[in-house]
């Protein structure tokens, strides 16, 4: 609808691949910028308007825009059209259809009236569902299901890492960020027509989160680090597949390592095929100029078990949580509470599985 009201538009200077829409000839009135995050959600806000010198210290109002597509994605983790969202949220109205667009007719006027009223009906239903979560986070600040999760962490009273650890070395944070490579999907046999089995892990991320006892880091008052190169190398030298299958092995494996890859099987971010964008593939990797890279200890363990060759660790850093923040007991949904001493992530996964069985 913003697109239909614009006077002109241009590429946004603030957001890469975003668009700025001019709605007024008066330059003191702000534009509206829209930045697509992905196919499911987008940012929408006012730009910084032209102001007098005396007004420059005043806070900038960025607006409160609610995109129902983004809102529905945050609540369902699914991409919806207006038609599918109206059905999913059991709205009384349904989206009408039209054979032609941009031709003014009684049918097309009725189509647009229905579109507007149906969108409002959907917004009311979205808000009714969101209110069940009991969160104070504004609906305009929900961009994905992660926004809901973050809202609960704020409700529990968990403060951000940066606020509690303002002096944590940025250099080490950079090493940690380099080791993050996202999820893994693989096909072992390609371009062959043979019977195969599709294998997936249920709740893999939260399962690993619990095994590594990462909740202790989330609620810690402070996070410290230790250089554990020799100890970590000894662990890597001796670890076996049987060890990995034991819960006890995972405790304390919050370690990142610097190595010079030498025919190790590791995840690599690079350009693959003819595409211009980078992606991640798990490949045999060798550094021909002795360039070192940071990986988690888990990646090195996986490489060892796959190749039979143990990577040589040049440097290892292990992270340790210190203390516990003052937390509150909260009600996630009616009848589901999380006490201050409980692992929030573990509790939510267990409740989700319990409710699935009831259905």
What would you note in describing this structure?
The structure is a single chain. The chain has 3 domains: 1-65, no CATH class; 74-156, no CATH class; 161-187 and 203-322, no CATH class. Helix content is 36%, strand content 19%. The chain is built from 14 helices and 12 strands. The strands form 4 sheets. A 4-stranded antiparallel beta sheet has the order 1-2-3-4, with no helix packed on it. The protein has a 4-stranded antiparallel beta sheet with strand order 5-10-6-9.
The domain tally reads 3
- Give, in order, the helices and strands: HEEEEHHHHHHHHEHHHEEEEHEEEH
What is the SS-derived class? alpha+beta
Radius of gyration: 25 Å
Give me the number of helical elements.
14
Strand order of the largest sheet: 1-2-3-4
Mean of residue pLDDT?
89
Largest sheet: 4 strands, antiparallel
Proportion in helices? 25-40%
Describe the structure in brief.
The chain has 359 residues and is of the alpha+beta class. The protein has helices at residues 2-5, 68-76, 82-88, 106-131, 145-156, 161-164, 170-179, 204-211, 215-218, 229-238, 241-244, 247-250, 297-307, 344-358; strands at 8-11, 19-22, 32-36, 42-46, 222-227, 255-259, 262-271, 278-286, 293-296, 313-322, 330-333, 336-338.
């Amino acid at each position: 609808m913003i697109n239909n009201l614009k006077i002109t538009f241009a590429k946004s200077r603030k957001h890469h691949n975003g668009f700025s829409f001019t709605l007024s000839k008066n330059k003191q009135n702000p534009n509206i910028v829209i930045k697509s995050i992905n196919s499911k959600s987008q940012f929408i806000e006012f730009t910084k308007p032209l102001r007098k010198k005396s007004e420059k210290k005043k806070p900038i109002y960025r607006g409160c825009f609610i995109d129902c597509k983004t809102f529905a994605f945050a609540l369902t983790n699914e991409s919806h059209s207006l038609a599918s969202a109206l059905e999913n949220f059991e709205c009384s109205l349904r989206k009408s259809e039209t054979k032609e667009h941009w031709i003014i007719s009684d049918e097309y006027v009725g189509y647009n009236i229905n579109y507007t009223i149906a969108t409002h009906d959907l917004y009311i239903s979205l808000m009714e569902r969101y209110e069940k979560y009991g969160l104070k986070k504004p609906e305009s600040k929900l961009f994905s299901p992660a926004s809901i999760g973050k809202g609960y962490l704020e409700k529990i009273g968990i403060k951000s890492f940066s606020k509690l650890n303002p002096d944590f070395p940025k250099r080490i944070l950079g090493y940690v960020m380099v080791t993050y490579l996202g999820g893994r999907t693989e096909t072992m046999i390609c371009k062959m027509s043979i019977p195969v089995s599709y294998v997936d892990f249920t709740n893999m991320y939260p399962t690993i989160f619990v095994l590594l006892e990462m909740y202790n880091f989330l609620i810690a008052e402070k996070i410290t680090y230790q250089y554990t190169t020799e100890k970590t190398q000894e662990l890597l030298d001796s670890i076996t597949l049987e060890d990995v299958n034991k819960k006890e092995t995972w405790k304390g494996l919050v370690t990142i390592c610097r190595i010079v890859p030498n025919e190790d099987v590791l995840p690599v971010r690079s350009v693959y095929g003819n595409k211009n964008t980078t992606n991640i593939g798990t490949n045999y990797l060798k550094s021909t100029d002795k360039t070192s890279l940071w990986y988690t200890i888990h990646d090195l363990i996986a490489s060892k078990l796959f190749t039979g060759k143990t990577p040589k660790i040049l440097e290892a850093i292990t992270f340790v949580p210190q203390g516990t923040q003052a937390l509150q007991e909260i009600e996630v949904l009616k009848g589901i509470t999380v006490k201050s001493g409980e692992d929030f992530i573990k509790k939510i996964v267990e409740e989700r599985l319990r409710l699935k069985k009831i259905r």
